[in-house]
Amino acid sequence: MNQSDTGMDLFFEPRSVAVIGASNTVGKIGYKLMDNIVTGEYRGKLYPINPRDAEVFGLKAYTSITEIEGPVDMVVIAIPASFVLDEVDKCAKKGVKFLVIITSGFSEAGNIEMEKKVVKAARDGGMRVLGPNIFGLYSSRVSLNATFGPKGVKKGSVSIITQSGALGIAMIGMTASEGIGLSSIISVGNKADLDEADLLDYLASDENTRAIMLYIEGITRGERMLGSLRRVTRKKPVIVIKSGRSKRGAMAAASHTGSLAGSDEVFDAVMRQCGVLRAENLEEGFNWLKFIAEAPLPSGKDTVIVTNGGGIGVMATDACEKYGIELLDEPELLRKIFSSSMPSFGSCKNPIDITGQASEVNYREALLAALESDRVHSVMALYCQTADFEKVAYSEMITLIHNEYMRKHKPIAYSLVGGEEVTECVKYLRGRGIPAYQGVYEMVSCFGALYRFRENRLKEVQEEVRIDIGTEAICSMVDGALKDGRDFLLAHEARAVLEAAGISTPKSVIVRNIEEAVGAAERIGYPVVMKIVSRDILHKSDAGGVALDLDDREEVMDAYQLIIRNARKYDPHARIDGIEVSEMVHKGLETIIGARRDRSFGPIIMFGLGGIYVEIMKDVSFRALPLSRSEAISLLKEVRSYPLLLGVRGEESKDIEGIIDVMIRVGSILRSVKRITDMEINPLFVYERGKGVKVVDVRIMIAKDREE
Ligand code: COA
Questions:
Q1: Which residues line ligand 1 (CB under 6 A)?
Q2: What is the pTM of this model?
């Protein structure tokens, strides 16, 4: 998508801006906005609008937007909520393109209807709305600081989109003190119209933006947002900070899948799937942002650690393992690169330990050797304060080396460990835009983010696998159940859904008397399983409505009578639709495949190993749909018990292809039939490779109110 295709060019580069609520009264938001726009030296035309004063900030003020003669691209609104709608109507008449509604008191305060009216009036009038309930936006393209945050925003290459206004204002301060320059910062507030997806699509192609940070509290229109994230992360690093690791979303869930899909786990998995870098907290996020916005992309995966201390070398090695960073491990090559700069007592194994006795010259030479070598793709420079540490000399040396690396397009960062002088040294270097850290982990985690971004760029575009799943047959099954007043499918209906989608289920027949039961069992072949079929009995085992492993006609006859008796006792009013006789499935490795409509992200799929793995260890993983084949494989690999699928202790490996096939078909069902809200195949028995998989039980929940 090109910038101009997004329709957002005039949002980031308005040629003229009007402020409704512009004020001469110090302390008012309308004053602060004018002050920031004027002192920020906005490059377009500025029109203050105020019903009382003839001039605001020395500029001619207008009593109404309609009085302005020239075109107005953007209007910033900072008047009380009750007056906003009238002004929006006037803006529509004027042909304004974008509204930036600072005003609070809309949906966040329960005033949902008013917010809807404002957005409708705006959209009908051909306008898009940012907000309401925001601190505004800053865009370096036209030097527009239409916020009531701090002045003097530093221009640069980072864009921030934030849902929290107060935190956003604080972030402007943090970027300034960290020396991070901004390309834009946008407060999205209630996201009544424009949201992250609209902005990301533009920023993906914005040549002024190298890295993007998102602060998210809640997600609306998640499926659309995931599409934008997938596109943008192939081009630019996107760092996300999400607050509220809450499990509330999961509590209302109807199925097992639902209770495992705690909103945070899903968020985490889905962000990873989209190539987004999720930071634990603001500090980590800003560390990554600063590093990643400046560092060149490494040309390969081989990293070298140069250190004058063995201990911190080991710490950094551990951290590299945690963050998936690969250390160059070719002893001969390392010796060749480093032997000339290495004192006789040093070690040429990676981490390259030149030891505490090494001189500053040795240290410098070792770093330069790493930077010069084509086989080293990134460098971590660790330094432990020694007795003769000279902070000025060290800082100068690092500054020189850093400038050298800039020319060589190789990422390098510095971690210093020691006392007060080291603290001062780090401060000095950071003040000059050099990525220096006091902690080893902080530095390594920045490289981790950079490498994950690199991997993401190299990843092939994921194609959704499309298969025919007999949508018509599935829909008629769902419609029938809905007409019947149910929000779930009966077992045989659920199985018919799977069969229609090409997922084979155990052979089974519903019978209504003993003779039919025996006939069915003989046709299916012994052993068989029998289960009660009743719309009033959801938990069949609790009702004594299940009999397993029935080997002959006598056992079938006895079971029939017992099941009916048990069901009557359990619920005398239960409507009994019959008894289901099915093939007894041989035991395989128990797995679970679930799918549901997440309130934020739309359809998601879950995989886990069954039994205790899922019950106790909650060893499951998630993906948002649509699912490509390679995503399905990575989903399987993510569960901790994945080695069980590969076969342990001489066992054959399991039929992984069979699992993937079922996952892709389940995903397609959920994507195609919106009235299906939850599906769970539990257990799915998996046999040895080539011997397939077998659905033992499936549950499907449905709802009327889904738009197809
Ligand atoms: N057209 C143009 N100007 C108008 C107007 C209209 N229809 N109605 C009022 N004004 C003028 C007022 O005369 C006043 O100017 P003055 O100081 O010269 O008298 C100015 O606009 C502001 O109006 P006022 O009624 O004084 O409102 P206020 O400044 O007290 O409050 C808001 C307005 C928007 C700041 C307030 O309603 C609000 O929402 N505050 C919270 C904002 C917020 O926190 N947003 C989220 C941040 S994350």
A1: 20-21, 23-25, 28-30, 49-53, 78-80, 83, 87, 102-105, 133-135, 165
A2: 0.87
